[in-house]
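new request in #modeling-help
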Amino acid sequence: MNRFSEKLSVCRLDDELVLLDGRTGSYFGLNAVGARLFELLQAGFDREAVATRLLSEYDVAETQLRGDIDTFLFKLSELGFIECDDA
Amino acid sequence: MIASFLGVSGSMRRYSAFGWTIRSEIALALPAAGAETACDFTIRYGDAPDFPETPYCLDSIRYGLAEDRLRILVPRTADFKIRGRKEMLIAPEPGVSETVIASIITGLVLGFLVHLNAWLTFHGSAVVRDNNALIFLGACGAGKSTTAAAFCRRGYKILCDDLVPISVDGQVLPGVPRPRLTEASYRRLFDDAVPIPSLWDGADKYQAELDFSVAAATPRVSLILEPWAEDRFLAEPVKGWKKISALAPYLQSLPDIDDKKAILARLTSWLGDRRVVRIRRPATGFRVDELLDLIETASSKETI
Protein backbone atom coordinates (compact mmCIF):
# COMPACT_ATOMS: atom_id res chain seq x y z
CA MET A 1 0.00 0.00 0.00
CA ASN A 2 1.27 3.48 -0.87
CA ARG A 3 0.64 6.31 1.55
CA PHE A 4 1.04 9.85 0.25
CA SER A 5 1.79 12.93 2.31
CA GLU A 6 -1.20 15.12 3.10
CA LYS A 7 0.96 18.11 2.22
CA LEU A 8 1.43 16.89 -1.33
CA SER A 9 -0.72 18.39 -4.07
CA VAL A 10 -0.75 16.94 -7.53
CA CYS A 11 -1.78 18.87 -10.63
CA ARG A 12 -1.78 17.90 -14.26
CA LEU A 13 -0.32 20.44 -16.69
CA ASP A 14 -0.84 19.21 -20.24
CA ASP A 15 0.63 15.68 -20.27
CA GLU A 16 2.87 16.24 -17.26
CA LEU A 17 2.29 16.19 -13.52
CA VAL A 18 3.43 18.73 -10.98
CA LEU A 19 3.97 17.68 -7.38
CA LEU A 20 3.59 20.62 -5.02
CA ASP A 21 5.09 20.40 -1.55
CA GLY A 22 2.71 22.36 0.66
CA ARG A 23 5.30 22.52 3.43
CA THR A 24 7.98 24.31 1.45
CA GLY A 25 6.28 25.66 -1.67
CA SER A 26 8.67 23.64 -3.83
CA TYR A 27 7.36 21.94 -6.92
CA PHE A 28 8.61 19.05 -9.00
CA GLY A 29 7.69 18.33 -12.58
CA LEU A 30 7.17 14.84 -13.90
CA ASN A 31 7.33 14.22 -17.63
CA ALA A 32 4.80 12.00 -19.34
CA VAL A 33 6.44 8.74 -18.28
CA GLY A 34 7.02 9.92 -14.72
CA ALA A 35 3.42 11.08 -14.62
CA ARG A 36 2.24 7.64 -15.70
CA LEU A 37 4.39 5.99 -13.07
CA PHE A 38 3.07 8.28 -10.35
CA GLU A 39 -0.52 7.72 -11.37
CA LEU A 40 -0.03 3.97 -11.08
CA LEU A 41 1.32 4.46 -7.57
CA GLN A 42 -1.65 6.66 -6.72
CA ALA A 43 -3.95 3.92 -7.97
CA GLY A 44 -2.40 1.58 -5.41
CA PHE A 45 -0.08 -0.45 -7.66
CA ASP A 46 2.92 -1.81 -5.79
CA ARG A 47 6.42 -1.71 -7.23
CA GLU A 48 6.13 -5.05 -8.99
CA ALA A 49 2.76 -4.23 -10.53
CA VAL A 50 4.02 -0.83 -11.69
CA ALA A 51 6.96 -2.48 -13.42
CA THR A 52 4.74 -5.05 -15.10
CA ARG A 53 2.35 -2.40 -16.36
CA LEU A 54 5.02 -0.04 -17.65
CA LEU A 55 6.87 -2.83 -19.42
CA SER A 56 3.71 -3.49 -21.38
CA GLU A 57 3.28 0.19 -22.23
CA TYR A 58 6.82 1.26 -23.06
CA ASP A 59 9.64 -0.15 -25.12
CA VAL A 60 12.32 -0.26 -22.45
CA ALA A 61 14.77 -2.80 -21.03
CA GLU A 62 13.43 -4.40 -17.86
CA THR A 63 16.55 -3.81 -15.77
CA GLN A 64 16.61 -0.14 -16.84
CA LEU A 65 12.95 0.26 -15.96
CA ARG A 66 13.21 -1.41 -12.56
CA GLY A 67 16.22 0.72 -11.71
CA ASP A 68 14.35 3.88 -12.69
CA ILE A 69 11.33 2.89 -10.62
CA ASP A 70 13.49 2.28 -7.57
CA THR A 71 15.24 5.64 -8.03
CA PHE A 72 11.87 7.35 -8.40
CA LEU A 73 10.44 5.73 -5.27
CA PHE A 74 13.55 6.56 -3.31
CA LYS A 75 13.34 10.20 -4.36
CA LEU A 76 9.66 10.47 -3.45
CA SER A 77 10.37 8.86 -0.10
CA GLU A 78 13.35 11.13 0.52
CA LEU A 79 11.14 14.16 -0.13
CA GLY A 80 8.57 12.86 2.31
CA PHE A 81 5.92 12.46 -0.37
CA ILE A 82 5.31 8.75 -0.06
CA GLU A 83 5.59 5.76 2.22
CA CYS A 84 5.55 2.41 0.47
CA ASP A 85 5.22 -0.94 2.15
CA ASP A 86 7.74 -2.37 -0.27
CA ALA A 87 10.05 0.68 -0.61
CA MET B 1 -4.63 66.72 9.30
CA ILE B 2 -7.67 66.71 7.13
CA ALA B 3 -9.00 70.10 8.23
CA SER B 4 -7.81 71.86 5.09
CA PHE B 5 -9.87 69.52 2.98
CA LEU B 6 -13.09 69.60 4.98
CA GLY B 7 -15.75 71.61 3.28
CA VAL B 8 -14.33 71.10 -0.20
CA SER B 9 -17.47 70.45 -2.04
CA GLY B 10 -16.29 68.41 -4.98
CA SER B 11 -19.29 66.93 -6.58
CA MET B 12 -19.37 63.16 -6.66
CA ARG B 13 -18.17 61.81 -9.99
CA ARG B 14 -18.93 58.31 -11.30
CA TYR B 15 -16.35 56.00 -12.80
CA SER B 16 -16.06 52.45 -14.07
CA ALA B 17 -13.27 50.05 -13.04
CA PHE B 18 -13.03 46.34 -12.10
CA GLY B 19 -16.61 45.96 -13.23
CA TRP B 20 -17.60 48.29 -10.39
CA THR B 21 -19.21 51.71 -10.50
CA ILE B 22 -17.13 54.00 -8.34
CA ARG B 23 -18.47 57.25 -6.94
CA SER B 24 -15.65 59.61 -6.08
CA GLU B 25 -15.25 63.02 -4.54
CA ILE B 26 -11.86 63.20 -6.27
CA ALA B 27 -11.39 63.48 -10.00
CA LEU B 28 -9.82 60.20 -11.18
CA ALA B 29 -8.28 59.20 -14.49
CA LEU B 30 -10.82 56.43 -15.06
CA PRO B 31 -13.61 55.97 -17.62
CA ALA B 32 -16.84 57.68 -16.69
CA ALA B 33 -19.79 55.52 -15.67
CA GLY B 34 -23.36 56.25 -16.59
CA ALA B 35 -25.62 57.99 -14.10
CA GLU B 36 -28.04 55.09 -14.25
CA THR B 37 -25.63 52.47 -12.90
CA ALA B 38 -25.82 51.64 -9.21
CA CYS B 39 -22.82 52.66 -7.17
CA ASP B 40 -20.64 49.87 -5.77
CA PHE B 41 -17.86 51.83 -4.12
CA THR B 42 -17.44 55.35 -2.73
CA ILE B 43 -14.25 57.38 -2.44
CA ARG B 44 -14.32 60.48 -0.27
CA TYR B 45 -12.29 62.58 2.08
CA GLY B 46 -12.64 61.60 5.69
CA ASP B 47 -11.27 59.55 8.53
CA ALA B 48 -12.39 56.73 10.81
CA PRO B 49 -10.94 55.45 14.09
CA ASP B 50 -11.55 51.72 13.79
CA PHE B 51 -8.78 50.81 11.38
CA PRO B 52 -5.70 48.65 11.94
CA GLU B 53 -2.16 49.84 12.41
CA THR B 54 0.22 49.51 9.47
CA PRO B 55 2.85 46.94 10.41
CA TYR B 56 3.71 45.84 6.87
CA CYS B 57 5.92 47.51 4.27
CA LEU B 58 5.96 47.64 0.50
CA ASP B 59 8.90 49.88 -0.36
CA SER B 60 8.06 53.10 1.50
CA ILE B 61 4.35 52.30 1.73
CA ARG B 62 3.01 50.95 5.00
CA TYR B 63 -0.18 48.92 5.21
CA GLY B 64 -2.28 46.83 7.53
CA LEU B 65 -5.25 44.52 7.11
CA ALA B 66 -7.82 43.39 9.69
CA GLU B 67 -10.91 41.50 8.56
CA ASP B 68 -12.47 43.73 5.94
CA ARG B 69 -10.53 46.88 6.76
CA LEU B 70 -7.44 47.81 4.79
CA ARG B 71 -5.24 50.77 5.64
CA ILE B 72 -2.52 52.16 3.40
CA LEU B 73 -0.21 54.89 4.60
CA VAL B 74 1.73 56.72 1.90
CA PRO B 75 4.43 58.82 3.58
CA ARG B 76 4.06 62.58 3.28
CA THR B 77 0.96 62.08 1.19
CA ALA B 78 -2.14 60.53 2.73
CA ASP B 79 -3.73 57.88 4.90
CA PHE B 80 -6.12 55.67 2.92
CA LYS B 81 -8.70 53.58 4.76
CA ILE B 82 -10.78 51.07 2.84
CA ARG B 83 -13.74 49.34 4.38
CA GLY B 84 -14.67 46.12 2.63
CA ARG B 85 -15.80 46.69 -0.94
CA LYS B 86 -17.84 49.69 0.08
CA GLU B 87 -15.82 52.81 0.67
CA MET B 88 -12.46 54.49 0.82
CA LEU B 89 -11.73 57.36 3.20
CA ILE B 90 -8.79 59.63 2.47
CA ALA B 91 -6.99 61.79 5.00
CA PRO B 92 -4.34 63.77 3.10
CA GLU B 93 -1.32 65.50 4.54
CA PRO B 94 -1.53 69.29 4.40
CA GLY B 95 -0.56 70.77 1.07
CA VAL B 96 -0.82 67.57 -0.96
CA SER B 97 -2.52 68.24 -4.28
CA GLU B 98 -5.59 66.36 -5.38
CA THR B 99 -3.75 65.34 -8.55
CA VAL B 100 -1.18 63.46 -6.50
CA ILE B 101 -3.93 61.84 -4.42
CA ALA B 102 -5.75 60.78 -7.58
CA SER B 103 -2.68 59.23 -9.16
CA ILE B 104 -1.97 57.25 -5.98
CA ILE B 105 -5.55 56.00 -5.88
CA THR B 106 -5.51 54.71 -9.45
CA GLY B 107 -1.85 53.67 -9.47
CA LEU B 108 -1.58 52.03 -6.04
CA VAL B 109 -4.59 51.91 -3.76
CA LEU B 110 -7.08 50.49 -6.24
CA GLY B 111 -4.41 47.94 -7.11
CA PHE B 112 -4.47 46.71 -3.52
CA LEU B 113 -8.23 46.32 -3.77
CA VAL B 114 -8.03 44.46 -7.06
CA HIS B 115 -5.51 42.09 -5.59
CA LEU B 116 -7.40 41.45 -2.36
CA ASN B 117 -10.60 40.70 -4.26
CA ALA B 118 -9.01 38.32 -6.75
CA TRP B 119 -7.99 34.68 -6.42
CA LEU B 120 -4.80 35.30 -8.38
CA THR B 121 -3.27 38.52 -9.68
CA PHE B 122 -0.67 38.95 -12.40
CA HIS B 123 1.33 42.02 -13.32
CA GLY B 124 0.30 42.49 -16.92
CA SER B 125 -2.46 43.61 -19.26
CA ALA B 126 -5.41 41.87 -20.90
CA VAL B 127 -7.70 42.49 -23.85
CA VAL B 128 -10.89 40.72 -24.83
CA ARG B 129 -12.88 39.95 -27.96
CA ASP B 130 -15.86 37.61 -28.17
CA ASN B 131 -15.43 36.76 -24.48
CA ASN B 132 -11.89 35.44 -25.09
CA ALA B 133 -9.07 37.19 -23.25
CA LEU B 134 -5.45 37.55 -24.29
CA ILE B 135 -3.22 38.10 -21.28
CA PHE B 136 0.09 39.93 -21.79
CA LEU B 137 2.85 39.36 -19.28
CA GLY B 138 6.47 40.41 -19.22
CA ALA B 139 9.12 42.49 -17.54
CA CYS B 140 8.82 46.27 -17.29
CA GLY B 141 9.30 47.76 -20.73
CA ALA B 142 8.39 44.57 -22.57
CA GLY B 143 5.41 46.30 -24.16
CA LYS B 144 2.45 44.79 -22.33
CA SER B 145 0.36 47.96 -22.18
CA THR B 146 1.40 49.11 -25.64
CA THR B 147 0.50 45.75 -27.17
CA ALA B 148 -2.83 45.72 -25.36
CA ALA B 149 -3.59 49.23 -26.58
CA ALA B 150 -2.61 48.33 -30.15
CA PHE B 151 -5.04 45.40 -30.15
CA CYS B 152 -7.91 47.84 -29.75
CA ARG B 153 -7.34 48.73 -33.39
CA ARG B 154 -8.31 45.14 -34.20
CA GLY B 155 -11.66 45.08 -32.47
CA TYR B 156 -10.44 44.07 -29.03
CA LYS B 157 -11.38 45.90 -25.86
CA ILE B 158 -9.19 46.63 -22.88
CA LEU B 159 -10.03 44.43 -19.92
CA CYS B 160 -7.32 45.51 -17.51
CA ASP B 161 -3.91 47.13 -17.34
CA ASP B 162 -1.06 46.75 -14.85
CA LEU B 163 -2.94 44.16 -12.80
CA VAL B 164 -4.72 41.14 -14.26
CA PRO B 165 -7.10 39.69 -11.65
CA ILE B 166 -8.23 36.09 -11.96
CA SER B 167 -11.40 34.87 -10.26
CA VAL B 168 -11.74 31.62 -8.33
CA ASP B 169 -13.42 30.05 -11.37
CA GLY B 170 -10.47 30.99 -13.56
CA GLN B 171 -11.95 33.94 -15.41
CA VAL B 172 -10.06 37.15 -16.17
CA LEU B 173 -11.79 39.93 -14.25
CA PRO B 174 -12.04 43.55 -15.39
CA GLY B 175 -9.52 45.90 -13.82
CA VAL B 176 -8.32 49.41 -14.52
CA PRO B 177 -9.17 49.75 -18.19
CA ARG B 178 -6.67 52.43 -19.24
CA PRO B 179 -3.29 51.28 -20.51
CA ARG B 180 -0.49 53.57 -19.45
CA LEU B 181 1.88 54.38 -22.28
CA THR B 182 5.08 56.30 -22.69
CA GLU B 183 4.66 59.45 -24.76
CA ALA B 184 6.46 57.82 -27.68
CA SER B 185 4.17 54.79 -27.61
CA TYR B 186 1.12 57.00 -27.24
CA ARG B 187 2.04 59.07 -30.28
CA ARG B 188 2.81 55.95 -32.32
CA LEU B 189 -0.55 54.46 -31.43
CA PHE B 190 -2.58 57.61 -32.05
CA ASP B 191 -0.89 58.74 -35.28
CA ASP B 192 1.45 61.22 -33.65
CA ALA B 193 -1.26 62.96 -31.61
CA VAL B 194 0.21 64.63 -28.54
CA PRO B 195 -1.44 63.37 -25.33
CA ILE B 196 -3.37 65.97 -23.39
CA PRO B 197 -2.09 66.86 -19.90
CA SER B 198 -5.13 65.44 -18.12
CA LEU B 199 -4.06 61.97 -19.21
CA TRP B 200 -0.73 62.22 -17.40
CA ASP B 201 -0.59 59.60 -14.65
CA GLY B 202 1.48 61.75 -12.34
CA ALA B 203 4.59 59.61 -12.85
CA ASP B 204 5.95 58.93 -16.30
CA LYS B 205 3.15 57.79 -18.60
CA TYR B 206 -0.11 58.76 -20.22
CA GLN B 207 -3.37 56.87 -19.93
CA ALA B 208 -4.90 55.80 -23.22
CA GLU B 209 -8.66 56.16 -23.48
CA LEU B 210 -9.77 53.13 -25.44
CA ASP B 211 -12.79 50.86 -25.72
CA PHE B 212 -13.01 48.70 -22.63
CA SER B 213 -15.03 45.84 -21.24
CA VAL B 214 -16.47 45.42 -17.75
CA ALA B 215 -17.34 41.75 -18.08
CA ALA B 216 -15.20 38.82 -16.96
CA ALA B 217 -13.74 36.81 -19.83
CA THR B 218 -12.36 33.34 -20.49
CA PRO B 219 -8.57 33.32 -20.76
CA ARG B 220 -7.58 32.08 -24.22
CA VAL B 221 -3.82 32.33 -23.94
CA SER B 222 -1.17 33.89 -21.72
CA LEU B 223 1.53 35.58 -23.79
CA ILE B 224 4.91 36.35 -22.30
CA LEU B 225 6.47 39.23 -24.21
CA GLU B 226 10.25 39.17 -24.33
CA PRO B 227 12.43 41.59 -26.27
CA TRP B 228 15.58 39.99 -27.65
CA ALA B 229 18.64 41.00 -29.66
CA GLU B 230 17.61 39.19 -32.86
CA ASP B 231 15.88 40.98 -35.71
CA ARG B 232 12.97 38.56 -35.94
CA PHE B 233 9.88 37.32 -34.12
CA LEU B 234 9.40 33.92 -32.56
CA ALA B 235 6.43 32.29 -30.84
CA GLU B 236 7.32 29.38 -28.56
CA PRO B 237 4.61 27.40 -26.77
CA VAL B 238 5.39 26.58 -23.15
CA LYS B 239 4.15 23.19 -22.04
CA GLY B 240 3.79 21.14 -18.89
CA TRP B 241 5.33 22.08 -15.62
CA LYS B 242 7.55 24.70 -17.28
CA LYS B 243 4.46 26.90 -17.44
CA ILE B 244 4.79 27.44 -13.71
CA SER B 245 8.30 28.85 -13.87
CA ALA B 246 7.29 30.88 -16.93
CA LEU B 247 4.38 32.64 -15.19
CA ALA B 248 5.44 32.65 -11.55
CA PRO B 249 7.64 35.78 -11.95
CA TYR B 250 4.54 37.79 -12.87
CA LEU B 251 2.41 36.75 -9.91
CA GLN B 252 1.56 39.53 -7.50
CA SER B 253 1.59 39.00 -3.77
CA LEU B 254 1.44 41.24 -0.74
CA PRO B 255 4.28 40.63 1.70
CA ASP B 256 3.13 39.50 5.15
CA ILE B 257 -0.47 39.05 3.99
CA ASP B 258 -0.41 36.56 1.15
CA ASP B 259 0.61 32.95 1.59
CA LYS B 260 3.00 32.44 -1.31
CA LYS B 261 2.66 28.66 -1.15
CA ALA B 262 -1.09 28.99 -1.52
CA ILE B 263 -0.67 31.38 -4.45
CA LEU B 264 1.69 28.97 -6.17
CA ALA B 265 -0.82 26.18 -5.65
CA ARG B 266 -3.53 28.36 -7.19
CA LEU B 267 -1.33 29.16 -10.16
CA THR B 268 -0.64 25.49 -10.76
CA SER B 269 -4.32 24.65 -10.48
CA TRP B 270 -5.29 27.48 -12.85
CA LEU B 271 -2.70 26.62 -15.47
CA GLY B 272 -3.97 23.06 -16.09
CA ASP B 273 -4.17 22.76 -19.85
CA ARG B 274 -4.30 26.53 -20.41
CA ARG B 275 -2.09 27.79 -23.18
CA VAL B 276 1.07 29.75 -22.56
CA VAL B 277 3.20 31.14 -25.38
CA ARG B 278 6.49 32.98 -25.16
CA ILE B 279 6.64 35.76 -27.77
CA ARG B 280 10.12 36.98 -28.57
CA ARG B 281 10.28 40.24 -30.47
CA PRO B 282 13.10 42.54 -31.68
CA ALA B 283 14.22 44.95 -28.96
CA THR B 284 13.86 47.90 -31.35
CA GLY B 285 12.77 48.83 -34.84
CA PHE B 286 9.82 46.56 -35.52
CA ARG B 287 6.33 47.12 -36.86
CA VAL B 288 3.69 46.71 -34.19
CA ASP B 289 1.29 45.15 -36.71
CA GLU B 290 3.82 42.40 -37.33
CA LEU B 291 3.86 41.63 -33.61
CA LEU B 292 0.06 41.64 -33.47
CA ASP B 293 -0.13 39.31 -36.49
CA LEU B 294 2.20 36.85 -34.77
CA ILE B 295 0.23 36.99 -31.54
CA GLU B 296 -3.09 36.45 -33.30
CA THR B 297 -1.69 33.50 -35.21
CA ALA B 298 -0.18 31.98 -32.06
CA SER B 299 -3.42 32.55 -30.17
CA SER B 300 -5.63 30.96 -32.77
CA LYS B 301 -3.75 27.68 -33.12
CA GLU B 302 -4.93 24.87 -30.89
CA THR B 303 -1.49 23.31 -31.07
CA ILE B 304 1.72 24.86 -32.29
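bot summary: The interface with chain B takes residues 9, 11-18, 20, 22, 24-25, 27-31 of chain A (CB under 8 Å).
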